[in-house]
Amino acid sequence: MKYIRQFAVILTVSFLGEVLKALIPLQIPASIYGLLLMLGALCLHIIPLEAVRDTGKFLVEIMPLMFIPAAVGLTESWDRISPILVPLIVVTAVSTILVMAVSGRVTQLVIRLEERRGRKKE
Predict the structure, then answer these.
(1) Which of 76-80, 97-101, 103-107 has the lowest mean pLDDT?
(2) pLDDT tens-digit profile of 21-32?
(3) Which distant-in-sequence residues (6+ apart) come within 8 Å of 52 by Cβ?
(4) How far apart are CA 8 and CA 10, in angstroms?
(5) From the CB of residue 41, how many other CB atoms can be counted at a distance below 10 Å?
(6) In a 3-state reduction of DSSP, which class is residue 27?
(7) Buried b (16+ CB within 10 A) or exposed e, 82-118
(8) 30 Cβ neighbours under 8 A, 6+ residues apart
(9) Residues 9, 48: contact at Cβ < 8 Å?
(10) How far apart (Å, rounded) are the C-alpha atoms in residues 17 and 24?
């Protein structure tokens, strides 16, 4: 029952993201609105972390399965993808490397900031 309740909280926030997408005339996906709403609700303690923690962990664990439908969709679009395959591979490789580099740098920065805060408290 706990998982159903947690999943309902996540679905409600996702639905609110869909509502915002319909109301705000920006080219931002509804999922981004939902993620920002969830982040805000968690940071402001409107939703306690315990209200979504277990289901969130589960969803992260099964995330690779969520990409299977998208991959199947790509195979069905092969006739449109094949003419631009080389540029697509290059853009994918470069953007993957950039995301990894930026994520690594941000993670290092956060770790350093947390270490400094820990030293100041002592």
Answers:
(1) 76-80
(2) 999 989 999 999
(3) 6, 9, 10, 38, 42
(4) 5
(5) 17
(6) coil
(7) eeeeeeeeeeeeeeeeeeeeeeeeeeeeeeeeeeeee
(8) 14, 17, 18, 20, 21
(9) no
(10) 10
